[in-house]
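Why do we bother with holo predictions? Because pocket geometry can differ from the apo form. Keep that in mind while you read this record for coenzyme A.
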Amino acid sequence: MLRISADFDELDLALIHRFLSADSYWAAGIPRDTLNRALRNSVCCGVFLDGIGQVAFARAVTDQATFAYLADVFVLPEHRGRGHGRAVVEALMADPRLQGMRRWHLITRDMQPLYAKLGFVPLTQPERHMQRHDPDIYTRTP
Ligand SMILES: CC(C)(COP(=O)(O)OP(=O)(O)OC[C@H]1O[C@@H](n2cnc3c(N)ncnc32)[C@H](O)[C@@H]1OP(=O)(O)O)[C@@H](O)C(=O)NCCC(=O)NCCS
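The structure, written out:
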């Protein structure tokens, strides 16, 4: 049976760290304590299968009032293509702490089709958005 939970204490922190640090293109090498701090300060959601454990994850970086940034969405490779990715994002966006947001934001290399089904559109005024970005921060030796 499938269960989706936003209970932080149910999350498999080791599994989330393993996937993000080793298999994601956006958080490669992220230290475990940095990730744990990030997760603690986010609204998180996981998909769990009976007898298997956690197979999917998503989180929102948010003030829980006006703005949320959707991040770290993944499904373990052997469980993809069965709706878990969409389900975990939908469940996260339905969380009571994340209602009434003026803006949701996300960045994706190639999953625009997934997020388009959930109401996301490309930036309408990209010239108004700015960033400070340090993509090598997790892997740079001090
Ligand atoms: C992206 C990811 C989370 C999708 O999870 P998933 O469980 O395979 O996706 P789902 O089965 O829920 O698919 C949801 C929808 O997205 C679409 N979709 C899924 N993978 C897709 C792909 N590779 N290309 C285009 N569309 C895709 C599906 O068509 C599906 O549409 P439907 O609901 O109308 O059937 C998963 O492939 C993954 O973990 N990828 C590696 C990590 C990653 O890239 N994360 C996203 C970072 S922005």
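Residues 13-23 form the longest helix (11 residues).
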